[in-house]
Design goal:
The structure holds three protein chains of three kinds. By secondary structure, chain A is α+β, with helices and mostly antiparallel strands. Chain A contains 15 helices and eight strands. Chain A is about 50% helix and about 15% strand. Chain B has a single domain, classed as Rossmann fold (3-Layer(aba) Sandwich). Helices cover about 40% and strands about 10% of the residues of chain B. In chain B, helix 6 links the parallel strand 4 and strand 5. The chains are: A alpha+beta, B alpha/beta, C alpha/beta.
């Protein structure tokens, strides 16, 4: 006998322990099965694009820190690449190597939080999260040595980095690099074949390659669906073509694959840092750029592979000291377009996991 | 029920959106002046006859040593707060390891992040749901006065004290976990001086 | 290296198919007329040799007398990219066709352009404000917003 059911709307409000920030979803449920989902955001819209039009080109850099606040170095670097493309500034070699080291360390730190939060959503509560915080504290110590800040670094400048590395940085980095693979093996031993993780995450929330490309997904979400596309290889920026690293991809595109993808990307980042450390030359760390940069009129788009996906800055200039228009291509917002397709037919508990595996930061969505 | 392909949302109530928008506009019109800070306890220093009884001291010790936080983390300061809960700067030694989502079980709200007008009615609602006695710590420059985003007046509330009364302000962008712990200790000192039992009223009976 | 396709080459191919659709073309960009946008977009996505199936971003810029909506398209297979622009003159109620049917990634970005600039997109399933609340007066990113 068929039972007649009615759809029920559940509001998972802006303040909720499982959402990664102030993000609201209105889920239409049929019993426990999710039929449709409408995301509502804007609870952290701070008008960064409008504020960028009122500040000088160098003054926008602290604003870009606060976009995806757990990977500030990548945001700074993307903006500086755009300004350099617009103004035609050449970056000295030591600065390039330092930028690569910082960007890859930042990638490891951000992916640690992504993996930790995903495991938190799966039910392992705070245990793996706090273990990963132990590594992140070491990386944040390194950043504090270089820039003086723990979270929003404001370290990159158009033409290089703001100051040179102190003497204690390289020994500390070497110590970190000796320790880190051991910790990663420890996590793999505990988590990769864990029964509960496999039962909850394998086969859940599958995103096919065609859907991913149509939804403009990028980053680990795209690569876990089987598309081999990494901006560092396809469109190399800075000096990434000097390094030897792989681009891992997974086959299915479910939540377990996205988790595995992030762990493998961390290992590749360690490889890049090892090579950059060995090849680091000496020299100036910043090009000779005027204090108030005044690029010629025109536009430029520069993109890089941020830990969440393809982060890009589209800058339009009209030969003034402030940008005419600064648009930020947010990977988290665009990856979210795929959420609707991934979630239909799954239950509410799976919705939380699928949402956690996309890994968003609300500061970047709302800008 | 069959599952439809992508297109219009099945439930997307424009009426509900309009109502919520109206609530936000009303709150914005009402919150043009900051709410004064609850600092009446500063005046009580000057009064000659405050008697802080042993019962008071005991109650205050209990309250300040096990503050439970309500979740309200919009933005970047949230990560410094989570780092303060983490293994290096341990907030559990102050009795604060619980980060409950339910405001009914919380007595402290650490507001870590920029407040926007769209989020303001929700913060007010959570504050109203917390049971007395309750305290609020404004963490970070955005919580004190809008911070680096204060010029975007169309969307950003210039400080949490437009919406809820704030007890302790912690500056920084973001403040280090040590600064957060210092602010919590200031709040604990404030709680220690709270008068729970009014001795004069008891003696009058 | 992602090759940036020459606007003039692609303009020639498009003019053969849809005469009168290209307003101007240069080395870097291609400006298309708004009425032909959907046809040209489908042509760019499906033709052999172009196959621009990945939409990087959609955004709008406010030059004082016109709005310009910029699309950056790339191809995963051939690793090339192309910038397409559409202009809308006049500030009262600008309307453009939506490309959500072709690239679903444009969904939230077009809502954002409506929210911040006021440009409506016809054919979008859910055209409403995304970052600001319903009932907000004005469009913040316009140059004349107070």
């Amino acid at each position: 006998m068929a039972v007649k059911t009615e759809p029920f709307v559940l509001n998972m409000g802006p303040v909720h322990p499982s959402t990664h920030g102030v993000f609201r979803m209105r889920a239409t449920l049929d019993g426990e099965v999710v039929v449709d989902i409408e995301p509502v955001f804007g609870y952290l819209h701070r008008g960064i694009e409008k504020l960028a039009e009122q500040r000088t080109y160098t003054g926008v850099i602290p604003l870009t820190d606060r976009l995806d606040y757990i990977s500030s170095m990548s945001n700074n670097l993307a903006y500086c690449l755009a300004v350099e493309k617009l103004a035609g500034i050449k970056v000295p070699e030591r600065a390039e190597y330092i930028r690569v080291i910082m960007a890859e360390l930042q990638r490891i730190a951000a992916l640690l939080i992504a993996v930790g939060a995903f495991l938190n959503d799966c039910g392992a509560y705070f245990t793996p999260f706090l273990y990963m915080f132990r590594e992140r504290e070491r990386i944040v110590d390194l950043f504090e040595m270089a820039s003086g800040q723990r979270l929003t670094y404001n370290y990159m400048r158009a033409g290089g980095v703001s100051q040179d590395l102190p003497e204690e940085f390289m020994p500390a980095l070497r110590k970190f690099m000796d320790m880190m693979p051991r910790y990663m093996d420890e996590y793999d031993r505990l988590l990769m074949q864990n029964e509960i993780l496999i039962a909850r995450a394998k086969g859940v929330g599958i995103l096919t390659a065609e859907q991913a490309i149509n939804c403009s997904a990028s980053g680990p979400v795209l690569r876990a669906s089987g598309v081999k596309w990494d901006v560092r290889k396809a469109d190399p920026y800075s000096i990434y073509d000097h390094f030897d690293f792989d681009v891992p991809i997974q086959q299915t595109g479910d939540c377990y694959d996205r988790y595995r993808q992030r762990v493998e990307e961390m290992r590749q980042s360690l490889r890049i840092i090892q090579q950059a450390m060995e090849q680091l030359p000496s020299g100036p760390v910043k090009a000779e750029v005027p204090h108030l940069i005044r690029p010629p009129a025109g536009e430029a788009y520069a993109r890089l592979e941020a830990p969440k996906g393809e982060l890009g800055f589209y800058l339009v200039s009209d030969n003034a000291i402030a940008p005419y228009r600064c648009h930020i291509r947010p990977p988290s917002l665009i990856n979210l377009t795929a959420l609707r397709d991934m979630v239909r037919g799954w239950k509410v508990a799976d919705l939380i996991i699928i949402f956690g595996s996309i890994d968003i930061t609300v500061g970047e969505i709302d800008r | 029920m069959e599952i439809k392909p992508a297109g219009k949302y099945i439930y997307s109530d424009i009426e509900l959106d309009r109502e919520e928008g109206q609530i936000i506009e009303d709150l914005k019109a009402k919150s043009q002046e900051p709410i004064p800070d609850p600092d009446r306890w500063l005046d009580e220093e000057l009064e000659q006859n405050i008697l802080l009884t042993t019962v008071d001291a005991l109650i205050n010790w209990g309250r300040r040593s096990s503050l439970w936080t309500a979740i309200c983390f919009p933005a970047c300061c949230a990560f410094e707060m989570i780092a303060a809960n983490g293994p290096r700067f341990d907030l559990a030694r102050f009795g604060m390891e619980i980060l409950r989502a339910s405001p009914r079980q919380a007595d402290l709200m650490i507001t870590a992040g920029t407040l926007t007008w769209k989020m303001a009615p929700n913060v007010r609602r959570i504050y109203n749901q917390m049971a007395e006695p309750k305290w609020v710590i404004a963490m970070g420059a955005c919580a004190i006065s809008g911070g680096i985003f204060a010029s975007a007046e169309y969307a950003v509330v210039p400080g949490y004290n437009r919406i809820i009364p704030v007890d302790v302000y912690i500056p920084g962008c973001p403040p280090r976990p040590e600064a957060l712990i210092y602010g919590i200790q200031m709040l604990q000192r404030k709680i220690a001086r709270r008068k729970n039992i009014d001795v004069r009223k008891l003696l009058e009976r | 290296m992602t090759v940036s396709l020459s606007g003039k080459e692609v303009a020639r191919k498009i003019e053969e198919q849809f005469p009168g659709s290209v307003a101007e073309s240069s080395q870097d960009t291609l400006v298309v007329r708004a009425d032909f946008l959907l046809d040209v977009a489908r042509f760019l996505r499906d033709t052999e040799g172009l196959e621009l199936d990945f939409l990087n971003f959609v955004t709008a810029v406010d030059y004082y007398d016109h709005f310009e909506v910029v699309y950056l398209l790339s191809s995963m297979k051939h690793n090339h990219s192309l910038t397409v622009k559409v202009r809308r003159y006049g500030r009262e109620n600008p309307v453009l066709p939506s490309v959500v049917g072709l690239w679903q990634g444009a969904d939230f970005q077009e809502r954002e352009i409506f929210d911040l600039f006021g440009i409506r997109f016809e054919g979008h399933p859910d055209m409403k404000r995304i970052f600001l609340w319903d009932g907000f007066q004005g469009y913040p990113l316009r140059k004349d917003f107070v």
